[in-house]
Known about the structure:
The chain folds into 2 domains: 2-208 and 378-392, Rossmann fold, CATH 3.40.50.2000; 230-376, Rossmann fold. Helix content is 44%, strand content 13%. The protein contains 14 helices and 13 strands. It has a 7-stranded parallel sheet with strand order 3-2-1-4-5-6-7, with helices on both faces. Helix 3 (68-93) packs parallel to helix 4 and helix 8 crosses helix 12. Belongs to the UDP-glycosyltransferase family. Pfam families: UDPGT.
Amino acid sequence: MKFVFQTMPAYGHLNPMLGVAQELINRGHKVTVYNVSEFKDKIESVGAEFKKLPLGTDTIDLRILHNAVNIAELSLQGTELLVDPLIKEIEEEKPDCLIHDSLSLWGKVVGLHTKIPTVALVPSMAINLKVILNQTSFLINDYKYIASHPLIFLNIMRRFRNVYMRKGLIPPFTTDIFSNSEKLNIVFTSRYFQPLEKSFNESYKFVGPIVYDRQEKQLNVITENNKPIIYVALGTIYNDKVDTYRSIIQALKVVGYPSYISIGKYINISDLGDIPPNVYIASYLPQLEMLGKSSLFISHCGMNSVNESLYFGVPLLMIPIIQEQRINAKRVEELGAGIYHKKQPIDIPQFVESINSLLQDKKYKHAADLASTALSSCGGAKEAANHILNFIS
């Protein structure tokens, strides 16, 4: 069978999707993935065919996505550009199934228009109106922005409706712009981790994190094997705050444990000042390799990072940056598997205290292990592929 995947051009959306794509390919199916050129090699490395999204540009700065309005705007812009050319290409290709992530509005519209069976992949927590209302305290800044910019919000809602109506489709409820749900929704976490899990019906299949061989370069940089290892990574999008890294480095100097920091592509190591001997810094570190050897993960709390950390039973010290990450941090703390550091800028003495607590108090490791058991029993990519194949058969 032939599958077409469409997703937001971001590692957090692409990585788990490619694990599912690889599983389908291993079972003898053909997979085509639409994305930007930056991810061409990564997509082809799992055996999928790459096709470039007809966006007219390959440069998309996802750092602007710091509130719900900006996320909706990017999704709408993409949809307005992509729907017509994608419908034309997909009708020519005649795939058996379309698969899109939960922010790819264009994927849902293309599926409805072509009447090809369509599946949604959810790389974050699943979203519905009950979850949104339950997380009001974390979304208050979004509500304030909407209240102070009503015309922007009303314009987004108008465009959202028009995207559907232009194709003769009935627009769904407004919140669907952030979930784009289908008759089958594959969620990359467990019901154990999902807030208000009972509010989701059987169309939502919780398969846990998609942990697979990403063919990442293994650096083998960890030389200590008799001390706790601390791994630090703040994601691939909002990781450009030099002061945040400087504060973390100061705290790591105080605790003295061997520590490894992945700083991404926006910062030069020379910007970070003097680096203590117990701290190793690189622009890239292979996350799965690092988590498999670490005792603590200092993280921005993106969903992939949370899933992968808990999959390996590693407690988290969390410094979330955007609303979704704050919701994740709250949930990890509720489960007892980490500490949510709320003070910004970072309170270094408090940060040091949290590091020591997470490494010395066994309750955090125990909670992370419970979450690991729940996540690893969900089935991952194999279970996701089973659900997809059952759905279209």
